Amino acid sequence: MSKKNITIDEVKHIAKLSKLDIPNDELEYYVAEMDKIIGYFELLSKVDTKDVKPMTHVNNINNIMRDDQSNPSLKNSDAIKNCADTFGQFIKVPKILDKD
């Protein structure tokens, strides 16, 4: 595996996706930190795991399943009567996603 170096443009792109405002004078710091993280993954990729069985939990845990049981639920009118903003039988929530 070849060494991947993170660029300032990639840091800016990741910051934008994460909705973080990273000042220009700190970009080099984050480039170095992300390069270290990539280095750790490269180190981990060299570990021989061919004889290790895949696992879903660190501990020996089994899911405890039960049969689904149908129970009465709230009426629409009861569910929305304490909501701050509604539109008919629907609950209005603030917009959290931008289009860009």
Topology, element by element:
Layout: H1 8-17, H2 27-45, H3 76-80, E1 86-87, E2 90-91
Structure description:
This protein has 100 residues and is mostly helical. It has a domain at 8-45. 34% of the residues lie in helices and 4% in strands. It contains three helices and two strands. A two-stranded antiparallel sheet has the order 1-2. Strand 1 and strand 2 (90-91) form a beta hairpin. The relative contact order is 0.09. The mean pLDDT is 88.
Entry summary:
The protein is mainly α and 100 residues long.
The topology string of helices and strands comes to: HHHEE
Instruction: Tell me about the largest β-sheet.
Output: 2 strands, antiparallel
Global shape: flat
N- to C-terminal separation? 33 Å
How much strand content do the residues show?
under 5%
Question: Which key features would you list for this structure?
Answer:
3 helices; mainly alpha; two-stranded antiparallel sheet; 100 residues; 34% helix; 4% strand
